[in-house]
Amino acid sequence: MDAKSKHQSSTVATADMPVRRSAPLRLLAILFKSPVGVAGSFIVAAVVLLAFFGPLISPQDPLGRNIRARFEPPGYVDNNGNTFALGTDQLGRDILSRIISGSRVSVLVGVFSVLISGTLGVIYGLISGFIGGPVDSILMRIVDGLLAIPFIILVIAISGVVGAGLSTLILILGFTGWTTYARVIRGEVLKVREMEYVIAAYALGQSRPMVMLLHILPNVVASAIVLAAVQVGVTILAESSLSFLGLGVKPPTVTWGLMLSDGRQYINSAWWMTAFPGIAITITVLGVVFLGDWLRDFLDPNIRGRA
Q1: Which of 54, 111, 233, 247 could cross-link with 285 by S-S, CB 3.0 to 4.6 Å?
Q2: Measuring CA to CA, which residue among 56, 9, 28 is closest to residue 298?
Q3: In angstroms, rounded to a whole number, what is the distance separating the alpha carbons of residues 67 and 76?
Q4: 176-199 burial, b for 16+ CB within 10 Å, e for fewer?
Q5: From CA 9, how far away is CA 13, in angstroms rounded?
């Protein structure tokens, strides 16, 4: 074969070879195939950006008061040319700026409380399912007892005793939401620990702790990630509910639940005080649920294989 033929063969082989993309690009390509995933990712990314860069893009001071401009409707423009796109509240504060400021509390509470509850639940479920026997029975009876109490009732009861505050609320939601993770992870561990590769690890002489950490934990993390994504939305709703009832974060910190609480008595005359914070909560929770639903499809090989 002459040099020209070799060059042509090399060119054809190169053209036939699939172009390898990096892991982030492959992930984005899979994401863009799902309208639900794209919508959820866009909403979650927008809320996170608002939480981090809110003070830079906020049109007004969220705590600034102007009694002369109280109860102004959406689109109001004051004498200085400042536009209040979503109107003002009973103290003349800009609704849009307060919604942007409230996103920070929602993101902080949602992320950090889920990190706490997810970590505790994964460890608890991993130990319970891996050890099994009487230990598993005792640990699961504790979980059953806690799951018998409605989550929001338990959180309200603890908040009423301990008191309010941002850090306190994060800890309360974190230490009361781990039971769901424990139940799900325990079920996954019971299934995974009977797999052939786990039995082979024992045959090779690996210790039980190493088998649990190296072979079982990595195979149940996907379920924890999906559950955590969904629980972020649940936690945001819980925070808003507690703030609405006066058991969550206290003023002057701005939260969407407090905005709903402030506007409920003016709902007939100033509907925008409750409508826009309610819409912000709804869109954020829907975005988290959409992203969690896509993550479930992406991380589950059985569902991904049928797609």
Answers
A1: 233
A2: 28
A3: 14
A4: bbbbbbbbbbbebbeebbeeeebe
A5: 6
Q: What is the mean pLDDT of each run of 10 residues along the chain (307 residues)?
A: 50 46 65 83 92 88 88 89 90 93 90 92 91 89 86 78 79 87 90 85 84 86 86 88 82 88 89 93 92 80 49
Tokens encoding 114: 């889920």
Q: What is the pLDDT of residues 89-133, one digit of tens each?
A: 999 999 999 999 999 998 899 899 999 999 999 999 999 988 888
| Residues listed for the chain | 307
Whether the CB-CB separation of 105 and 253 falls below 8 Å is answered with yes
- Does this model's pTM top 0.85? no
34-58+103-306 topology per CATH: MetI-like fold (1.10.3720)
**Angular region, 250: left φ>0, alpha ψ -120 to 50, beta rest:** beta
Between 95-131 and 217-244, two packed helices, what is the crossing angle to 10 degrees?
140
Residue 106 tokens read as 């929602």
Instruction: With H, G, I as helix, E, B as strand and everything else as coil, classify residue 208.
Output: helix
Q: Where are the domains of the chain?
A: 34-58+103-306
